[in-house]
Hints:
alpha/beta
Amino acid sequence: MTQPSAKGAAVGRRIGIGLMYGFWKPRVLGAWRVPATGPVILAVNHAHNIDGPMLMGTAPRPVHFLIKKEAFVGPLGGFLEGIGQVKVDRDSTDRNAIGNALGILERGGVLGIFPEGTRGEGDFASLRAGLAYFAVRSGAPIVPVAVLGSTERPGRLVKGLPALRSRVDVVFGEAFEAGDGSGRRTRKALDEATLRIQEHLTGHLKNARRLTGR
């Protein structure tokens, strides 16, 4: 199993910086809350098609995102693999993706996850269990991230994207531990961790909206 490249993710970060600051006006708040070293999971709300590249270009460290396998088609698939992103089959237990994700954390890297699974309201109302599993299994702290920007204004390049040159706020929250400290990975422990995560994420999103006026 070929592990996603850390060097590739660093290249992806540079591409993300150029893309985001070239087409939009990111305002980044709280990036200092991301631990400077060691494994960490960024849990990101998902309301825009640009959320992944936005985080790659605004996070203080290179990020490996879990991305649905449907995106890995043609030249784009090779590009995503080249910049260290992780292909995942959302319709099955994708052991290859699980191994890759845990490997990233074991090597002290940054794993990016959209815990809602697909782009929607971006309000963390429905979380998949994968985030809790990775956090409890690895012991890595979770940093909640809110990406806030209007998709309804005129001037959008594509539906689901913020308007060209519009401001997009990226707000990083306080790191927290998902587990209860026992190290248990039972179904009950993961369910409890998921509820704990949802409370943290929805609380951060509420604070981020108040802070930014979004």
